[in-house]
UniProtKB/TrEMBL annotation:
Homodimer. GO terms for cellular component: cytosol. CDD domains: Cis_IPPS. This is Isoprenyl transferase. Belongs to the UPP synthase family. It comes from Carnobacterium divergens DSM 20623. Pfam families: Prenyltransf (PF01255).
Length: 258
């Protein structure tokens, strides 16, 4: 039997640890750091990009399931501002993936009433990637169900700096006073502003056993619940998502109160 203890000596989560209750609160906003594609491929003696391709299939599966469960926003960390440091071939593959994803999946998104949103420094993407995301946003803009929010060329520190610069400019131009700067006015400048009442993830998931945030939604996760699993992203399943939600449902969220 597989040990319940991981390399760090911590207990690993079996998938039936906290049975998910459809009748209890479903997190409105789930954000996922999809990690472990490369290791999944390496374990199978495949090139790293095979892991990314399989990871794309997992995105399709999890999008459909999250939408069925009634999740309002699913944010997926698909490419960080730091991922440009990877070898050119891998970066090129990752820039082609959104094209393939939307080419094959937009009809399903329309059928599921899912709306696509993309946050990140979109203007820095290669033209074919930028066009694919813009087309997907356009083609799903009338959908009223779950928002599938891709973080693409996204980095939270840069997002915060940009927001700060925009506010400073408004102050400089007398459009805003210092006294008017508060959490609400600041949030209007963040890349999550378009998510309205669901800007903050209720549940943040990271796969592959890594337990860090990697420059993801630093402002927005102030009160998020975290769920870490050793499962590699290509192996992530509907069952694991439900387990994460089951654990979330057992948490006592106090937002600093009692
Ligand atoms: C992290 O795994 C994963 C990424 C940097 C890319 C995530 C992309 C996908 C899951 C594909 C889906 C994307 C779209 C747009 C549909 P890693 O490569 O860091 O894995 P490792 O830590 O095992 O090397």
């Amino acid at each position: 039997m597989r040990s319940l203890f991981n390399r760090k000596g911590r207990k690993d989560s079996p998938t039936n640890e906290a049975p998910f209750q459809p009748s209890e609160a479903i997190p409105n906003h789930i954000a996922i750091i999809m990690d472990g594609n490369g290791r999944w491929a390496q374990k199978k003696f495949l090139p790293r990009v095979a892991g990314h391709r399989e990871g794309m299939n997992t995105v399709k599966k999890i999008t459909k399931h999250a939408s069925k469960l009634g999740v309002k926003v699913l944010t997926l960390y698909a490419f960080s501002t730091e991922n440009w440091k990877r070898p050119n071939d891998e970066v090129n593959f990752l820039m082609q993936l959104p094209v393939d994803f939307f080419d094959t999946f937009v009809p399903d998104l329309i059928e599921e009433n899912v709306q696509v949103n993309v946050m990140g420094f979109i203007d820095e993407l290669p033209p074919h990637t930028k066009k694919a995301v813009e087309n997907a946003i356009r083609d799903t803009k009338d959908n009223t169900g779950m928002i599938l929010n891709f973080a693409l060329n996204y980095g939270s520190r840069s997002e915060l700096l940009e927001a700060t610069k925009k506010m400073a400019k408004k102050v400089q131009q007398n459009e805003l006073t210092l006294e008017e700067i508060d959490e609400e006015t600041f949030e209007k400048e963040l890349m999550t502003a378009s998510l309205g009442e669901f800007q903050e993830p209720d549940l943040l998931v990271r796969t592959s056993g890594e337990e860090r945030i990697s420059n993801f939604l630093l402002w927005q996760i102030a009160y998020s619940e975290f769920y870490f699993t050793r499962i590699l992203w290509p192996d992530f399943s509907e069952e694991v998502l439900e387990n994460a939600i089951g654990i979330y449902q057992k948490r006592n969220r106090r937002f600093g109160g009692l």
